[in-house]
């Protein structure tokens, strides 16, 4: 994307961007910024992940239809170091481990004196992650969705101490690099998208657990009914279209019977305890071959990119 799009006054293309974590999310976030003209310092301590970064970045760049030399703007580091000191924004994209994120933010707080410090966490409250940061006004969430290069939404999460200026700068920056930012005004677990997504997953698991249908049927019904229109019309738009009187009548019948589990269901816990954690090991709720996993991921990426 051209950097002709207006940037906030405190962020310029001459200042680098930092990304902590070189996995699927971090690598894609780094590529997006590089494609928008920024120099990116990408920190990844694991040698095995660093070894695969070139191929990962090349694949993302090819899928986005961009010039191959874009990735030359991405400088890979083994550890957090002084290269991040001049960054305009640093985005943490490591695994969902609160203690690890807190440690990283404490180090960034000491190293990066005036950068926005953002976390890509999917569900952890931002305030908890930035607990040990002195200047909490610059800490916020920047939750990209997987895969970031094909799903443009970014949830910009305002924690209790986050300044309005930091939120405005991050929103403007995300727009400038071609993403679609939304402002999450309260720092609740899961923010907006994952609260909606996992409410659906809770009921989906309950349907299987209670013997109403199997996992394949759940997925088939979602894909071939309301899921087919969700990319065109959101749930509240749909409610308005069919009428709130009908929505109310349906809720009076179905809501009392929906799953109300206060924690993860037994079926999910049992699958995890048995090592059946999903496609990466060949079985989760469904059985997966390596070929089927690769085909689904490729089909998803291409379908999402086609929407742009």
Structure description:
- With 308 residues, the protein is of the alpha/beta class.
- It has two domains: 17-184, Rossmann fold (3-Layer(aba) Sandwich); 199-274, N-(1-d-carboxylethyl)-l-norvaline Dehydrogenase, domain 2, CATH 1.10.1040.
- The chain is built from twelve helices and eight strands.
- Strands 3-2-1-4-5-6-7-8 form an eight-stranded mixed sheet, sandwiched between helices.
- Helix 1 packs across helix 2 and helix 9 (235-242) crosses helix 10.
- It is globular, with a radius of gyration of 21 Å.
- The two termini are 13 Å apart.
- Residues 1-5 have low confidence and may be disordered.
Ordered list of secondary-structure elements with their pairings:
Elements: E1 17-20, H1 24-35, E2 40-43, H2 47-63, E3 74-77, E4 89-92, H3 98-111, E5 116-119, H4 126-129, E6 139-144, E7 153-158, H5 164-176, E8 180-184, H6 193-209, H7 215-223, H8 226-229, H9 235-242, H10 244-254, H11 266-273, H12 290-307
Parallel strand pairs: 1-2, 1-4, 2-3, 4-5, 5-6, 7-8
Antiparallel strand pairs: 6-7
């Amino acid at each position: 994307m051209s950097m002709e799009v207006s940037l906030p006054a405190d962020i310029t293309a001459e200042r680098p961007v930092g990304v902590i974590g070189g996995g699927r999310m971090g690598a894609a976030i780094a590529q997006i910024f590089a494609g928008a003209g920024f120099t990116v310092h990408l920190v990844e301590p694991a040698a095995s992940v660093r070894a695969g970064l070139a191929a990962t970045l090349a694949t993302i760049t090819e899928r986005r239809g961009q010039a191959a030399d874009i990735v030359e703007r991405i400088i890979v580091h083994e550890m957090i170091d002084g290269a991040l000191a001049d960054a305009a924004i640093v985005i943490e994209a490591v695994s969902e481990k609160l203690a690890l994120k807190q440690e990283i933010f404490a180090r960034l707080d000491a190293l990066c004196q005036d950068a926005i410090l953002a976390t890509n966490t999917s569900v952890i409250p931002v305030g908890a992650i930035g607990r040990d940061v002195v200047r909490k006004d610059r800490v916020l969430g920047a939750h990209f969705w997987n895969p970031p290069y094909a799903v443009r939404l970014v949830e910009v999460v305002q924690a209790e101490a986050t300044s309005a200026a930091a939120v405005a700068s991050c929103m403007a920056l995300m727009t400038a690099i071609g993403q679609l930012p939304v402002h999450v005004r309260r720092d609740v677990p899961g923010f907006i998208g994952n609260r909606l997504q996992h409410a659906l997953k809770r009921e989906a698991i309950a349907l299987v657990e209670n013997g109403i249908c199997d996992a394949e049927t759940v997925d088939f019904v979602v894909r071939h009914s309301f899921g087919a229109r969700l990319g065109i019309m959101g749930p509240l738009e749909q409610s308005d279209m069919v009428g709130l009187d009908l929505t109310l009548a349906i809720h009076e019948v179905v809501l009392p019977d929906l799953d109300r589990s206060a924690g993860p269901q037994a079926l999910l816990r049992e699958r995890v305890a048995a090592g059946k954690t999903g496609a990466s090991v060949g079985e989760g709720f469904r059985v997966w071959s390596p070929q089927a996993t690769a085909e689904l991921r490729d089909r998803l990426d291409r379908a999402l990119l086609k929407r742009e």
